[in-house]
Amino acid sequence: MTQHTFFVTGTDTDVGKTYVSNLLLRELTQRGNSTLGFKPISAGCENTPAGLRNEDALILQSASSIKAEYDHINPIAYAPPIAPHIAAELVGQSITLDTLQTHLKALEAYQADVLLIEGAGGWRLPLNRDGVYLSDFAKHNQMPVILVVGMRLGCLNHAVMSYESIVNDGLNCVGWIANQLSDDMPYYNENLASLQSLIKAPLLAEVAHQSKVSDASGGMKCFAAFDEILSA
User: Fold this and answer.
1) More confident residue, 213 or 13
2) Quick check: 221 pLDDT over 60?
3) Lowest mean per-residue pLDDT among 15-29, 103-117, 147-161, 204-218
């Protein structure tokens, strides 16, 4: 039985959800947990002899201690690098919550200690034109949420609005992770301090820009709150 399930979302697209999820899976595995990453929906996939393959999903598959089939890790995949609901329409499909629930059951059957579900885009990613969002999937399952904040100009607004939306959906944002998108963000520490005062959830970890990584940690520094969510 899966002990912990977390939904990883971000303040926008390209804020490092996959990079952070990769580090989280490897850190959790190193701590003795069986881990499994799940990328239910992806767009921007490459055609291969084995079928459509998404780079982010392959990273999650590699980082997981449980070696699940690719089609379980990334069951809904589209070639065009566009909004998934538009990509689905182009091939005559519709993404529904029932479909996502079926795929979630397949992942839960692996009985990982930690199941990490990576969202797509930001919190309000449309699944279709009927007003259903990927956040409704997290809401339906009452998943604890980890928010990845891409540290750049504009991150204060994006982070606070994302956090408030998660909370207003009735979900527990168990914490957030600061991901440094550049090695020279002006007033980085001041922005970090502002976010710590504005977001009423703990800072779980801080991820250094890749140019500053010099050891096997991958540049992620975990704080006490990170351990607390696993022991809850």
Assistant:
1) 13
2) yes
3) 204-218
CA 61 – CA 42 distance, rounded (Å): 14
**pTM of the model as a whole:** 0.96
Work out the mean pLDDT of the chain and round it to a whole number: 95
Give the pLDDT of residue 219.
Answer: 87
Ranges of each domain in the chain: 4-231
Tell whether the model's pLDDT for residue 2 goes beyond 80: no
Sort 50 into a burial class: Cβ within 10 Å, 0-12 / 13-18 / 19+. exposed
User: What residues are labeled active site?
Assistant: 39
Q: How many residues belong to the chain?
A: 232
- Check: CB of residue 172 under 8 Å from CB of residue 9: no
What's CA 25's distance to the chain center, in Å? Answer: 11
Determine the topology of domain 4-231 in CATH: Rossmann fold (3.40.50)
Q: How far apart are CA 149 and CA 179, in angstroms?
A: 6
Percent of the chain with pLDDT over 90: 92
Q: What is the DSSP string of the chain?
A: --SEEEEEEESSTTSSHHHHHHHHHHHHHHTT--EEEE--EEES-EEETTEEE-HHHHHHHHH-SS---HHHHS-EEESSSS-HHHHHHHTT----HHHHHHHHHHHHTT--SEEEEE-SSSS--BSSSSS-BHHHHHHHTT--EEEEEEESTTHHHHHHHHHHHHHHTT--EEEEEEEESSS--TTHHHHHHHHHHH-SS-EEEEE--GGG--STTTTEEE-HHHHHHHH-
